[in-house]
Amino acid sequence: MGAGQSFELRQWPSGGLDSIFHPKSVAVVGVSNTPVQLGLMRPFLTCGFAGNIYPVHRDGGTILGLKVYRSIADIPGLVDYVVFGTPAASIPSLLEECAAKGVKAASFFTAGFGETGTEGGKSLERRILEIARYAGIRLIGPNCLGLYCPESHISFIPDSPLEPGSVGFISQSGGNSVYVIRAGASRGLTFSKVVSYGNAVDVDESELLEYLADDAATGVIGAYVEGVKDGERFRRALREAAAKKPVIVMKGGNTRSGARASASHTGALASQKHIWDSLLRESQAMGVESMEEMLDLLVAFRYMRPVRGTRAGIVGWGGGASVQAADECEAEGLDLPAFPPSLRNELARHWLPTGSILGNPVDTVSWSRDRAGFAKIIDAVAAWDGVDVLILHMGVIGGLMGLETMLELFPVVTGAYIEAAGKTSKPVAVVFHSNATPEVGAAFFEQARKCQQAAIPVYDSLGRTARAIVRYAGFCVSHPGWV
Amino acid sequence: MGAGQSFELRQWPSGGLDSIFHPKSVAVVGVSNTPVQLGLMRPFLTCGFAGNIYPVHRDGGTILGLKVYRSIADIPGLVDYVVFGTPAASIPSLLEECAAKGVKAASFFTAGFGETGTEGGKSLERRILEIARYAGIRLIGPNCLGLYCPESHISFIPDSPLEPGSVGFISQSGGNSVYVIRAGASRGLTFSKVVSYGNAVDVDESELLEYLADDAATGVIGAYVEGVKDGERFRRALREAAAKKPVIVMKGGNTRSGARASASHTGALASQKHIWDSLLRESQAMGVESMEEMLDLLVAFRYMRPVRGTRAGIVGWGGGASVQAADECEAEGLDLPAFPPSLRNELARHWLPTGSILGNPVDTVSWSRDRAGFAKIIDAVAAWDGVDVLILHMGVIGGLMGLETMLELFPVVTGAYIEAAGKTSKPVAVVFHSNATPEVGAAFFEQARKCQQAAIPVYDSLGRTARAIVRYAGFCVSHPGWV
C-alpha cells in the first residue's frame, strides 16, 4: 500500500490474506456421497494437497478412503481452512465450532444467503460475519467455489491444471472462475491464484485486489465483478492495483436484465454503467465486454511482446480471409499500411503462386511448396519499419486439397510462423481461425499448444485479435516500462 | 423474373444458368500431379459424379486411374463443363478449343486476370469473354473454385458433404465458399448450390441472385460479395430475390484496407458503405458483418420456428453465464421480461437446488438429479405467454464435479432440451457455449448434431444467438407468411 493510505485504519489487513492460500490442513464439512459434495473434497486429493484432509459429517464412516469425523471438534489436529457444503442454516453453529478449533479461513459453497433477497438470508450473513470477526476467521463466499492456488495444491476442480503461473483472477461467479482456468489452460494461461468469492460477505473484491496488487507471484490481474461492496475502497484498490500491474475487469450485470440476474446470483447491487466506465478510466484498469475478451487480453499480457503502435502487417492465406482480416482489423482500430514498392518487389522475389496478394495483408499458399521462401516473405514484412506488430493467420478449411492434406500442411505453416516469430524482435500474434469442424478444432488446439510453448500468443478470431492488440498497444504506449 | 422486367433485353437469360449445374460430362484441363491440380479433378471422382470425366494435359498418360487426353479436341465424347487449372495466358486458345467442342460452361481456378490490376490481366479477361460470348459458353470466374451442387455430385472439395439441401450460397471468395460448406455441415446446413465465382467476368453476382431467386431447390440465399459488376442490375436482382426468399449478404472490403485487399483479391471496386447499406435497406435483404453471423442467420432460417417478437425466456446453468446471457441478450435487443409471481411459484414446485435463480434467466442444475422436474421447469417457461422465444443454454466447464462427470451429464441436458422443444410450439434456440477445451469441443459437436437431427437450431455464443434471433424476428414480423 502506498504511503497515502496510511491514515486508514484497516480492520482486516490485506497482508493477512496470504495465509489463506497456504493452509497446512483442511476440513470439508458436510461431505457426503453426492457428486457435488464429493466435488468439494476430491480436488484436495487429486491435486496432491500435502497437508491433512479431514472430511466431516455427522454420520461418520469413510469417504474417498479417508476417515470421516462426526464434528469439527472431533478432528485431532489443527485445521487452517474449512470448506462448507452444508445448508445455510447450519453454518452459524458450525462456524462457532471452527472458532473453538482456531480455524483461519472458511469458504462456503453453500448458497441461500443474501442473494435470496430474503431477510432470513441477509441476517444469516450478518450472523456468520459476526462470529468470524470475533474469532478472526476469514470468510470466502458464501455462494462460491473458494480458492484455487496451484502452488499450494488447493483447488475447487478435481482435474485441475497444476502448473502455477502469473495470472491472478478473482470472480464473483464460480462458473466464470472455472471457465477462466479451463479455457485459460487451452490458451496457455497458468495462474497464481483464482478466487471465486461469491457474495463477498467478508473477503471482497477490494481486499482481493489489494492483495493481488502486492502478491509477488501475480503479474497480471483479471476480475469478474457483478457488484461492489464498498465503492470508495474499490475505487482506491483498483487505482492502486492498476498502478502496479495490468488489471482487466469484466463487469457483469450491466443491463437491466443482467442487473436483475446478478442480484439473484450474488446479491450484487446494480451500479450504473457510466459510473463504472469512469471508474475504469480514472484507474487505468481495462474493462472488457466478455469472458472471451478477458482471455484474449490475458493472453496478450502473458505472451505478446510490447506493442508500441497500431500499424499491423498481416500474412496468411485466403483471399476472403484476407479481406475480412483487413476489414476486421481496421474496424477495431488497427492500421494496415500499404506496402511500399521496395517491399512488394522483395516479396515478389520469392515463390508466390498466381493468385497471391502482395499487399497488406499478404495472401499466399507459397508454404505449400516452398517453406523457406514463405519464411522469407514473413521475415520481409516483419523487417519493414512501417509495421509495429505482425499478425500471422491460418484458417484450415480444406478446399481443393481436402481436409486431410490441409491438416498435414497445418504444422508446416505453424512451424514457419514459430520460426519467423523467433527471428524478429517485433511482437507477433498467431491466429488460427475457421476452426468450425470437429477435426479442425482438435488440430487447432494442438498447433496452438506449439505456439504457446514458443511463447507466441494464439487467437481464434481475427477481429478479437485486432481488438486485443489495439487495447494492449494502448497499455504499452501509456506504460513505456512494460516489457 | 417479374413482368416489370420484360422491357429489358437479356443477352444472357438467367434461365440458361440451370444447365451449368447439371453437366453430363466434364473435362479438367491442365491437370497434373500437384495437390492443387489433382484437387480440381478429384472431387468429381470422390463425390460420385455419374457422367464422363476427362482429364486433359499435353503430356497424356493416366491420372487417378483415368486416361489423360492431350487436348480438348482429342476427347471422344461431348463435354458440357470444363474446369481450367492452366496458367492465365493459355486460356484464350484453350477456350477456342472448347468453343469448337460445344462446351456449355467453363470455370477457371486460374488467377492472373483482372485482379492483378495490370493491363495484360484485364485484356485477357476481355479476350476470354469475347470468345465465350461468341461460342455461347458461360464462364465462372476466373480466379474461383467453381460449382458445388450435391444433387449433381459436382464439387470443388474432394471430401464434400453430399446431402443436398435448401441453402443457396454465392461467394466471390473461394475460401468463404469452402468455409460455408464445411462449417455449415457442422451446423446442420445443407446446400442446393454453392458458387465460387471469383472475378465474375461473365456469370456475376446479379445473374446468380436472379437464378437462385427462381431456383425451386433454394429456400434461402446467402452471398459473400466484394464488388458489384453492374450496380443497377444488382439493385434489382437483390430486391427481387429478397421479395421471394430470405437473402443474407456479407459485403467484404468495407474498410479502406479491406477495399484494397478485395481489389487485389477479385478486382472488386470499392463501394461506399452508406451506398451498400441503403441498397440493403431498400431491398429488404439482410446484411451481416461476418461469415459467422452469416451461418448464424442461415441456421435460424433453416431450423428456427418463426419468431414473432423479441421477448425471450432463458433457461440454463451457471450464475455468471446467466448474468452474461442477460447482458448479451439485452445488448443485442432482446427483452427478458421478469417472471410473474405465478410462474415463479410454479417453478419453485419442482426441485430447485439452493443457489438456483428463479428469475429470467432461470439458473439451475436441477437436471443433475431430477431430469423430469427440469423438463417441467422449461415447459413452464415455454408455456408462459410473456415470452416469444425460448433460449436453452449450457456451458460445459466441469467445476466441482470435474469434466468427465459433466461430459456424462451433457447428453442428459441435451435430451431435456430436445424433449422440451418437442413439447412447445414456440421457437427454441439451443446454445452450447464455453466450448473452449478440446474435449468439450468434440462433445459440443456431438450434442449439436442431436439437436439438428431434431430440427432445433444450435449456436455456440449467447450474444450471437441473441443477435440472430433479433434479426430473424425482424424478418418474421415483416413477413407474416413465413413459416
Index terms:
homodimer; 483 residues; alpha/beta; Rossmann fold; six-stranded mixed beta sheet; five-stranded parallel beta sheet; disordered N terminus
Overall description:
The structure is a homodimer of 483-residue chains. With 483 residues, chain A is an alpha/beta fold. Chain A folds into three domains: 14-140, 3-Layer(aba) Sandwich (Rossmann fold), CATH 3.40.50.720; 146-303, Succinyl-CoA synthetase domains (Rossmann fold); 312-478, Rossmann fold (3-Layer(aba) Sandwich). Chain A has helices at residues 35-46, 91-101, 119-135, 174-186, 205-214, 231-244, 256-266, 273-283, 291-303, 319-332, 341-348, 371-383, 402-423, 438-453, 462-478, and strands at 25-29, 52-56, 62-63, 66-67, 81-84, 105-108, 138-140, 146-148, 164-171, 191-196, 220-225, 247-251, 286-288, 312-316, 362-363, 389-395, 428-433, 458-459. In chain A, strands 8-10-9-11-12-13 form a six-stranded mixed β-sheet, sandwiched between helices. In chain A, strands 2-1-5-6-7 form a five-stranded parallel β-sheet, sandwiched between helices. The longest helix of chain A is centred in the last third of the chain and has 22 residues, at 402-423. Chain A is elongated. The two termini of chain A are 23 Å apart. Chains A and B meet through helix 1, helix 4, helix 7, helix 10 and helix 13 of A and helix 1, helix 4, helix 7, helix 10 and helix 13 of B.
Beginning-to-end CA distance, first to last residue of chain A: 23 Å
CATH class of the largest domain in chain A: Alpha Beta
Low-pLDDT regions of chain A: 1-15
The most extensive contact between chains is: A-B, 93 and 93 residues
Number of strands of chain A: 18
CATH architectural grouping of the largest domain in chain A? 3-Layer(aba) Sandwich
Main sheet: strands, sense, barrel of chain A: 6 strands, mixed
Q: Work out the oligomeric state of the chains in this entry.
A: homodimer
**Residues in β-strands, percent of chain A:** 15-25%
Kindly report the average pLDDT value of chain A.
Answer: 91
Structural class designation of chain A: alpha/beta
Helix content bin of chain A: 40-55%
- Global geometry of chain A: elongated
Number of helices of chain A: 15
The CATH superfamily of the largest domain in chain A appears as Succinyl-CoA synthetase domains
Our Rg estimate of chain A from Cα atoms comes to 25 Å
CATH topological fold name of the largest domain in chain A: Rossmann fold
